[in-house]
Amino acid sequence: MAFATKNRQLLSRIATNDRPGENSPYFEGWKAYDSNPFHPTQNPDGVIQMGLAENQLCFDLIKKWILKNPQASICTAEGVDKFKDISIFQDYHGQKEFREAVAKFMGRVGGNMVTFDPNRIVMSGGATGANETVMFCLADPGDAFLVPSPYYPAFLRDLRWRTGLEIVPVDCNSSNNFRITRAALEEAYERAQRLNINVKGVIIANPSNPLGTTLDRETMRSLVSFINEKNIHLVCDEIYAASVFSSPRFISVAEIIQDMDCNRDLIHIVYSLSKDMGFPGFRVGIVYSFNDLVVHCARKMSSFGLVSSQTQYLLASMLSDEEFVENFLKESSQRLAKRHRVFTHGLEQVGISCLKGNAGLFSWMDMRPLLKEQTVEGEMELWRVIVNEVKLNVSPGSSFQCSEPGWFRVCFANMDDEIVEIALDRIGKFVRQGKEEDVAPKKPKRWQKKLHYLFCCCR
Amino acid sequence: MGLPSRKATCNSHGQDSSYFLGWQEYEKNPYDEVKNPKGIIQMGLAENQLSFDLLESWLAKNPDSAGFKRDGKSIFRELALFQDYHGLPAFKKALVDFMAEIRGNKVTFDPNHIILTAGATSANETLIFCLAEQGDAFLLPTPYYPGFDRDLKWRTEVEIVPIQCTSSNRFQITESALEEAYQQAQKKNLRVKGVLVTNPSNPLGTTMTRDELDLLINFITDKEIHLISDEIYSGTVFSSPAFVSIMEVLKDRNHENTEVWDRVHIVYSLSKDLGLPGFRVGAIYSNDPIVVAAATKMSSFGLVSSQTQYLLSAMLSDKKFTKEYISKNHRRLQKRQSKLVLGLEKAGISCLKSNAGLFCWVDMRHLLSSNTFEAEMELWKKIVYNVKLNISPGSSCHCTEPGWFRVCFANMSENTLKLAMQRLKLFVSSITINSQSHQEFKNSRRKARTNWVFRLSFQSFHDREQEER
């Protein structure tokens, strides 16, 4: 209708621009899955979701705890006495027990090398809310943050959309296993300067999404010294901190700055329980800053995304249970390690290698040999075949702003063992079929495209 | 470079206002019947604590939703993983049905047009982000909820221009006030994007009349701007006139699927009606698909916990429960409001006749030493520090007339309310009423030195315009 256009002009630019970036293949793959989701019995030919970084491996442990602790719910007979007090609690400082439990948990996850102060724990609507809030606190519209690529696609929305900020990518590539180098940081910084872009800081994810690796001590120290010298901020998104399943261990930036001379007002951490505990639905995001002004500002802003008091109460109880936490973290780590081993081994068997990972819920798969051409278009063509024909939703590297075509993030912790096998089986068939077709007589024209990819597949 | 943003260092969060300062004083010395009987009684907090027993009894009868179960089977995993920003379908359906029920089922809402947000705080901010940007303004009738200064302006950088309402007509919105506000905005080079009203009103405690709603629709049609109707208190209307939603008026005027239909948006929440502010359940309802799409994406920054969505979807789907709750809640609110009004009367204080909300708009103009905001602050400080009642001064709500205060009644026990009224009565009667004439008083009065003594002319006390009781 005509007035739709007129009304559209009456909306803000934010409402009508493309910054939420939901047209990228990262989200397109999800749509393909949503329209044809795999189910072992009801839809065995459906698309298997491997684009969703969720940790579904330890719900049995949590369920057991919940059954043993009915008082942690304010709705059960054992806990309903607390219902009124908790349901009216909307103080943006958050429940004291919740903050203490989260601070202790973060300390434990950091290997007990650091103690976190509960008074610096600020809530937010998931890490999504936390990252946006931190940006609002640290930068003004038009300012920029440096972000090492490849990076989590939704940063484009979370860091930029409503804040009006810009992202300047720091180029990392496979030549050194995608490590962040001082040279790359300097280059990105200078590039921004030349374009008259005011850089307010660097934001990293450690462990990295999509790489599935922890940052080593040297890189962390180099980062801290870089931002310190430039007097800009460092935001560390540590959302996967407890998803580290093999060495080297996770080192929080909080630990690094303990024996470094640096301006602590520049250091900020974002955390969440969505990945480590597997609770994305509960929207528990945390902003932890060493800068008092930022803590105060973020706390006021947390009004826009507080954690439900019902949830705070449950999790305060759960995370204060030290025995449970110890066991959970140990089991989770072991199960992730096993799953990672099975998956990467399965890929190796068919000649697909991954970046050596020690953390996260995914692998960074090297499909460069399968590309028709080493371009983004080549990557997208391969991706479409994988989604539409192999029926696996994996995430193409270009959606992570990776500068090298051919890398894919594939998640492995959001499914049962059986489905992992099915997925590996499908990949295996796809690769083997390619090898067979390589030596087979000429196929009809409609297979030519597919043949072209498979030709490059030999290892 | 290493400095935080302007937002971090500026004052637009508005949290230095007296509205929040009063809370801080309360935090330092909170009343407790047993542990601190001389502490400050919190009457600045618009919470509904009257009907928890009804909620608790529902929980006792419905152990499944309490324990993450459906039909006896655990759905914990499903809930813990559910982060779809479209929200739990069962919850959205239950919520829109509840909203319709509150409106006497005179309007129905489509669950596909509702967006869940972390409280009305987030809903209002999100809507403003969708409808306006820096350089734009929204018109708001005064007095208004102090939190709007933060929610609508802080991170969005949008301005608020007040629509001045006065006691001369019970603070109702007039056409001339709307026009004047619009002109004011233009003078400041601000582009007016819409009007935002709270209906029922906070802090007035009154529902908007049909005439006012018609006026608003005419105005936004003429100016081609938006209307946001924050209906967070819609379930607290305890006496006539009945609540009339803007949607109902649009329907009655056959405005469905017209241009203006798409420019009216509703904000809702369960924080006041159900008394669950801690659960952070807010909602935006819009007929404009672009607004729905944009707001849905933005809700990623503040989704409602799936644990909470599940519990409340079960609760609100229980129609027997919602019917009982709505009617009992109304009765209790009415009873409690009457107690406050009576208590105030006994202290010689009147308030605006109200039929909704969790507070009264109290007229203490006659207690001011002068008709100024300084005098209002002076009086407010006495009430907070000496009478030990935290109430909200009208200036914090941007009221144009000094002497009005918002006093909450639903966040305490009956005994506590009784005590608060006793304290107030004592305070007022300790004021020495001077029987000399007003002129004599003006010539001879000396400035009050102690906290407890005013000198007021008996004449001027009675000359004050008395509001309806």
From TrEMBL, chain A:
Secreted among keywords: no
The GO terms this record gives for MF are:
1-aminocyclopropane-1-carboxylate synthase activity; pyridoxal phosphate binding; transaminase activity
**Aminotransferase class I/classII large domain ranges (all copies):** 48-427
Q: Which CDD domains match?
A: AAT_like
UniProt keyword Ribonucleoprotein, yes or no: no
Instruction: List the keywords (alphabetical).
Output: Pyridoxal phosphate
Q: Which Pfam families match?
A: Aminotran_1_2
This protein's source sits in the domain of life called Eukaryota
**Family as reported in the entry's similarity comment:** Belongs to the class-I pyridoxal-phosphate-dependent aminotransferase family.
Please identify the protein, giving its name as recorded.
Answer: 1-aminocyclopropane-1-carboxylate synthase 1-like
TrEMBL record, chain B:
Q: Entry's InterPro entries?
A: Aminotransferase_I/II_large, Ethylene_sulfur-biosynth, NHTrfase_class1_PyrdxlP-BS, PyrdxlP-dep_Trfase, PyrdxlP-dep_Trfase_major, PyrdxlP-dep_Trfase_small
Q: Please list the cofactors this protein needs.
A: pyridoxal 5'-phosphate
> What keywords are assigned to this protein?
Ethylene biosynthesis, Fruit ripening, Lyase, Pyridoxal phosphate, S-adenosyl-L-methionine
Which pathway or pathways does this protein act in?
Alkene biosynthesis; ethylene biosynthesis via S-adenosyl-L-methionine; ethylene from S-adenosyl-L-methionine: step 1/2
Entry EC number(s): 4.4.1.14
Gene3D superfamilies per record: Aspartate Aminotransferase, domain 1, Type I PLP-dependent aspartate aminotransferase-like (Major domain)
Sorted alphabetically, which CDD domains does this protein's record hold? Answer: AAT_like
Please tell me which top-level EC class this enzyme sits in. Answer: lyase
Where does the Aminotransferase class I/classII large domain start and stop, copy by copy? Answer: 41-424
Please list the reactions this protein catalyses.
Answer: S-adenosyl-L-methionine = 1-aminocyclopropane-1-carboxylate + S-methyl-5'-thioadenosine + H(+)
GO MF annotation list: 1-aminocyclopropane-1-carboxylate synthase activity; pyridoxal phosphate binding; transaminase activity
GO biological process terms, alphabetically, are: ethylene biosynthetic process; fruit ripening
Q: What does this protein do?
A: 1-aminocyclopropane-1-carboxylate synthase (ACS) enzymes catalyze the conversion of S-adenosyl-L-methionine (SAM) into 1-aminocyclopropane-1-carboxylate (ACC), a direct precursor of ethylene.
Q: Which family does it belong to?
A: Belongs to the class-I pyridoxal-phosphate-dependent aminotransferase family.
Full protein name: 1-aminocyclopropane-1-carboxylate synthase
Q: What is the native source organism of this protein?
A: Durio zibethinus
Organism lineage reads as:
Eukaryota, Viridiplantae, Streptophyta, Embryophyta, Tracheophyta
Q: Gene encoding this polypeptide?
A: LOC111300706
